[in-house]
Amino acid sequence: MFPRGTYVSPEKRCVLGKCVFGNTGVLAYLGLALLLAGCDQSAIAESETTKAEGETVALDSEVKEASYLLGFKQIEDLLQQTDGVIDADAYLQGAKDFVGDKTSQVSDADQQRVFTALQAAVGAKQAEASAGVREAGEAFRAEYATREGVTQLPSGLLYEVITEGSGPKPTASDTVTTHYHGTLVDGTVFDSSVDRGQPASFPVNGVIAGWTEALQLMNTGSKWRLVVPSDLAYGDRGAGGQIKPGATLIFEVELLEIN
């Protein structure tokens, strides 16, 4: 739950194949070619030739249903991870060329160049989008800080005590169990153990900085509302499809126990 790396909401995780833009600036990817590398390409190609152009494949077996779902989820994940920058038609053409045992239209020598260009395009789009997201977060925090009962810490973290517990406070080295409900400033829910009906356990020092700071101030049994600036959350990289770069995050957190 909220590791320091990239957060991906459970319902958005793909079974196989995922494009990740790491903090080092290196594009790591597992494309459809790798997904299909162990498959019988001749059988796939033969299947392709039996369909008329534009004909929908009949999902008349569980294997076909799973195959369809892998394609559906993978392109969904890629579009989210690249903020819609990738060209879906070109992506699908690459998949067709691979299963048709054709030579790639982009040479091995050009791979690094084109992926670097893709990363730059994604970065530019994220920077443009994050400016508005960051401004919306700043405006929300400025207004929220004026509310009665809200405390602002030097780090910029804001919290409001909903219920004050009487148990011990955890340390950074502890593991805790919590219930939480996370939203964006517009009210969009991006993750919620409450909605899933299952508390989450994790190390105090293994989550985003805003959580690590707040948890050590909370008595067990407490329930707080946290407003976390992006610098204490996922910063300019964002996380998953819903948490955009620069996003301020709002959580209701109930500290159930120290494990």
TrEMBL record:
PPIase FKBP-type domain span: 173-259
PANTHER family: FKBP-TYPE 22 KDA PEPTIDYL-PROLYL CIS-TRANS ISOMERASE (PTHR43811:SF23), FKBP-TYPE PEPTIDYL-PROLYL CIS-TRANS ISOMERASE FKPA (PTHR43811)
GO terms assigned for molecular function: peptidyl-prolyl cis-trans isomerase activity
Transmembrane spans: none
E.C. number(s) listed in UniProt: 5.2.1.8
Domain of life: Eukaryota
Organism for this UniProt entry: Symbiodinium pilosum (Dinoflagellate)
Key words of the record: Isomerase, Rotamase
Pfam families registered for this protein in UniProt: FKBP_C (PF00254), FKBP_N (PF01346)
Protein name (record): peptidylprolyl isomerase
Catalyzed reactions: [protein]-peptidylproline (omega=180) = [protein]-peptidylproline (omega=0)
UniProt-listed GO biological process terms: protein folding
